[in-house]
Specification:
41% helix; single chain; two-stranded antiparallel ribbon; Beta-lactamase; 9 strands; alpha+beta; five-stranded antiparallel beta sheet
């Protein structure tokens, strides 16, 4: 992809978004990489749940826990925002795999917090460091912010794209765990950003994130012969729907360019 095209596409997305915009793209099978404001550290919203997912499967890979092990849903676990567990009865047994799926495909905040409690925030942050994500930190659980000035979750578009590229290359997990994690990410139910304007039969393994004035999407576009990792982040949005649409439009433009490269190859 031409660097000038990428830059122009990102500038157009930023103008259309009603706020600020960052993007990082990695040609996973090749050596090309494109960046637009992607080193800016911003509030992560729910895309920071992906390192939690990786920590869980890394431990299962090593036999340190079983994904079929269960946790019991309790009233103090329940938090608002995205998800369904808030609406379900206390005492419900859930496997760690169940919780991972809910955390990912519907961004369930209660499931996410239960996994954070099970795995430990310090261990998840050590995993983030091991992956090589210098601008990413899990500083608090979701919908719980006892110290708003200091306990925050942050990341950058570069960090997220590199994590997804390493995941696809098999550098973070064993083959079976890599396949399962990507399979869960492909089941994402929020599809109004990166996948929205892409071909319906093109698999996208991704995780969205939303907080006030902020819309993100990060993942893998599994283009045959030319898969790529992408993270788009928006913030200071005056119109969050415009932010969603800007991500969808730049995703379509970049997909077309990378598809053309794949056809030439």
């Amino acid at each position: 992809m031409n660097d000038a095209f990428f830059l122009e596409a990102c500038r157009a997305a930023e103008a259309a978004s009603s706020g600020a915009f960052a993007c990082h793209v990695i040609d996973v099978g090749g050596k090309q990489e494109w960046a637009y404001q992607s080193d800016l550290q911003r509030p992560a919203a729910s895309i920071v749940k992906v390192p939690v997912l990786i920590e869980l499967f890394a431990r299962a890979d090593k036999g340190q826990l079983s994904l079929d092990g269960t946790l019991t849903l309790k009233a103090p676990d329940k938090v608002g925002g995205a998800g369904v567990l808030l609406e379900l009865h206390d005492g419900l047994p859930l496997t760690l795999r169940d919780l991972a799926i809910l955390m990912t495909v519907v961004s369930d905040n209660t499931a996410s917090n239960m996994l954070i409690d099970r795995l430990g925030m310090d261990a998840i942050n050590r995993r983030i460091e091991t992956i090589g994500m210098p601008q990413t930190v899990l500083g608090r659980k979701f919908m719980i912010d006892p110290n708003a000035l200091h306990a925050k979750n942050f990341t950058s578009a570069r960090d997220m794209a590199h994590m997804f590229a390493r995941l696809l290359r098999g550098e973070l997990l064993g083959p079976s765990a890599t396949e399962e994690v990507i399979g869960i990410l492909k089941r994402q139910q929020y599809r109004e950003k990166l996948p929205l304007l892409l071909p319906e039969d093109l698999p996208v393994a991704h995780k969205t994130g939303e907080i006030s004035g902020t819309r993100h999407d990060a993942g893998l576009v599994l283009l045959p012969g030319r898969p790529y990792a992408i993270c788009c982040m928006t913030w200071d949005l005056q119109d969050v729907l415009a932010g969603d649409r800007a991500i969808a439009e730049v995703s379509r433009a970049l997909h077309q360019q990378i598809s053309d490269l794949a056809a030439i190859a």
